[in-house]
What does this fold into?
Amino acid sequence: MKQGTVKFFNESKGFGFIIESDSNAEHFVHISGLIDEVREGDTVEFELKEGKKGLNAVSVRLI
It folds into this structure.
């Protein structure tokens, strides 16, 4: 599993972005990909899955 920090998450719109710790890559995350509720600044672990517009963070959980 990859690790990162939640850069932004908008609960009302249901999406946000995670910055990957190793590469500083930014990954889109949809609310359907969350296991735990997240907020900006949270440290999380996640997997990447190909989506319609590139890689998306899925199975996102707090660590």
Observations:
- The domain at 2-62 is CATH 2.40.50.140 (OB fold (Dihydrolipoamide Acetyltransferase, E2P)).
- The longest strand covers residues 2-10.
- The chain has a mean pLDDT of 96.
- Residues 30 and 48 are 12 Å apart (CA to CA).
